Amino acid sequence: MYKVMSVVLAGAMLMAVPVFAADAQSDTNMEILKQKLKADKKLLVASNMELTDAEAKQFWPVYESYQKDLEGVNQQLGKTIMEYAEAFNKGTISNDTAKKLLNEALSVEEQETKLKRTYADKLEKVIPATKVARYIQMETKIRSLIKFEMAQQIPLVY
Q1: Separation CA 143–CA 45 (nearest Å)
Q2: pTM, whole model, 2 decimals?
Q3: What is the pLDDT along the chain (158 residues), one digit of tens a residue?
Q4: Which N-terminal residues, if any, form the signal peptide (predicted)?
Q5: Count of beta carbons in the 10 Å neighbourhood of residue 1
């Protein structure tokens, strides 16, 4: 698990390209990277879920649906980070801008938590609760690592 997890994390760090730096990768390269990360993540999940054939038949469609919905959360997070980068690069951030960005960031966190709860409920209908918990743990660990790397790259508001 740790080898694949490190591959997923390494790729995720690249996706969290420092928007505060001058370098930017092409959209094509980023799309290729995103597809590779999705495949690596799926491999990580598959290798740790220990699903029976019957469970797998029920699990994977729910997994794919969750990943699709999670992409919407990721896009909102990316938009918020870009807005913050633009404001940060202009200089001191106003109270109004800080409040707006804070509300957007908290909204993203709430959306992600709500999404996890919704999909945990869906998964409990098709696989045992222990496997639902394992899957949510994996999602949480992966996202925590990504958020940690992003947090290291995003400067504090001043």
Answers
A1: 13
A2: 0.80
A3: 555 555 555 555 445 444 444 455 556 776 777 788 888 999 999 999 999 999 999 999 999 999 999 999 999 999 999 999 999 999 999 999 999 999 999 999 999 999 999 999 999 999 999 999 999 999 999 999 989 989 998 999 98
A4: 1-21
A5: 10
